[in-house]
Amino acid sequence: MxxxxxxxxxxxxxEAEKIAKALVEAKLAGCVNIINNIRSIYSWxxxxxxxxxxxxxxxxxxxxxxxxxxxxKELHSYTVPEIIAIPIIExxxxxxxxxxxITKPE
Length: 106
Known about the structure:
The chain is built from 3 helices and 4 strands, in the order E-H-E-E-H-E-H. The chain is an alpha+beta fold. The protein has a 4-stranded antiparallel sheet, covered by helices on one side. The radius of gyration is 14 Å and the shape is elongated.
């Protein structure tokens, strides 16, 4: 299995909770960590923005990324939400087995 971590940011904790619960309930993610109070500096519509955001770290499988991304876009308030994936190179065998068992099969 190709396991990934998907990073998603949000401006509100309530929105992050809503997205996290929806992803886990739909078996698009095994676990979502919500990390408060990150600072994001980025360019948007010709201006440099400096905002406080919430980071979601979503553990899932690569084949679920498209469905996960679509679900996030349905629920997210941002016009262009950050939804990026990085591979999990290594992990405990027991954790990765659990992740693969708890999410949708291919």
